[in-house]
Amino acid sequence: MKKIILFTLTFINLISFQLKADNEVLVNYSNIAEAKYKDALTLAKQMHNSIEKFMKDTNESNFKEVKDSWLLARTIYQQTEVFRFGNPIVDDWEGKVNAWPLDEGLIDYVDNTNYYPSENDFSNFNVIANRKLKVEGELIDASVINANLLSSKLHEIGGNEANVAIGYHAIEFLLWGQDLNGTQKGSGNRSYTDFNLKNCTNNNCDRRREYLLAASQLLIKDLQYIQSVWSSEGQARLDLLNDKENGIKRILIGMGSLSYGELAGERMKLGLMLHDPEEEHDCFSDNTHNSHYYNVVGIKNVFLGEYKTIDEKIISGPSISSLLSNADNALNKKTKKSINKTLKSMKKIVKSANRGNTYDMLIAKGNEKGNKLIQNAVDSLIKQSKNIELAAVALNINNLQIERSDSLDNPEAVFN
To answer: Nearest to residue 66, comparing CAs of 44, 96, 81?
Structure first.
């Protein structure tokens, strides 16, 4: 009888210890989420300040400063995508800030000789040029471009996800314009004079300015919301911490889904299969190499439970890696190694872009060396994803359902 009691107490203590360890991982994960979204918000505010400066003095130098601030803002936001897939609150919100691809003709002028939108009734709306818009029989007053018009009337109008009116990519299009170079060298080449009231090019410079300011203000508002829900009493944090049964599983779903279905599949393999620059993530600015690289940085941060903020503060604590080191240290080392290998593959793509061979050029048909660079990164991501799935098994987590992709699982379907 004593042995049974002793065994029962030991078992209870083990469960209690495990729950405590899991909870510490969830808390640290939430702290990193809050810190990253705070940094993303800070950089979005800096971008808005540069936009306001550009509005006051609309010249080439200030325009470059705005574009540089957008590129800097992306370095942090892309690291937060690992919080998707396993956190419903983030998934419900994410389309407001990072939806893509977009039918840019909804927003502004496009070169129709090189523009092939999908079957989308609103793909040539051009709200910047039109003060009255008719939507499904309803006349919309677009005489003033403001946050309400963009978020409530235009964004995903007609229920079509390609009708992206807000977020990073809408701002990106406003800053760079269309990239009409296909898989050849060059990004979008919008002139600062598209915003210059005294020397306006392509008409409607006043409304283009209104749109840029409103989209930037909305981005700040949306980032303020997502940071708040990861704060100490925030809904996303509490939702995760209270999910004792599935909390760790949700972290792994986020890591695995971003690695496999989203990044390896939809963002990389699909574009490589089609050799289509329209499938690259930051397509107007040719910043896709950094976009993908920082996704993997975000995965590594979550796996190790470590993040250095933009003001040099270190956020660290118990992590998936520390749990795994106790359950299967060999697998922990293997997973860490696979993530580092993916980062090395991504760095090669970044180095290529910095030398002038950008992502859209690398996926071009006939560019064997470029195609191989992308495929190597895809292969690394797939291996990394498998290790994340094995980690779930080692941590006694069953049925880890990560996002899939036809590009990887059923490539024939892509061409049908």
So the answer is: 44
Tokens at 271, concatenated: 């574009």
Please name the residues in contact with 36: beta carbons below 8 A apart, sequence gap of 6 or more: 76, 79, 80, 83, 298, 301, 307
**Quick check: 37 and 335 in contact, CB under 8 A?**
no
Query: Which residue(s) pair with 9 in the sheet?
Result: none
Query: Most distant CA pair in the chain: distance in Å?
Result: 91
In this structure, what token pair is assigned to residue 280?
Answer: 């690259």
pTM of the prediction? 0.93
Contacts of 107 (CB under 8 A, 6+ apart): 126, 127, 128, 165, 170, 173, 174, 211
List Cβ<8 Å contacts ≥24 apart for 366-370: 367/183
Q: Which of 103, 394, 139, 380 is nearest to 259 (CA)?
A: 380
182-208 confidence digits (pLDDT tens): 889 989 999 999 999 999 999 999 999
d(CA 104, CA 52): 23
DSSP H helical ranges for 275-410:
288-304, 320-327, 329-354, 359-362, 368-394, 406-409
Please name which of 182, 181, 169 lies closest in space to residue 102, comparing C-alpha atoms: 169
DSSP 299-316: HHHHHHTEEE-TTS-EEE
Closest CA to 169 of 97, 254, 251, 67: 97
> What does the block give as tokens for 137?
């029989």
What is the model's pLDDT at position 19?
Answer: 55
Cα(287)–Cα(353) distance, integer angstroms: 9
Could you tell me the two tokens for 327?
């359950």
Q: State the sign of the Cα–Cα–Cα–Cα dihedral 168, 306, 267, 392.
A: negative
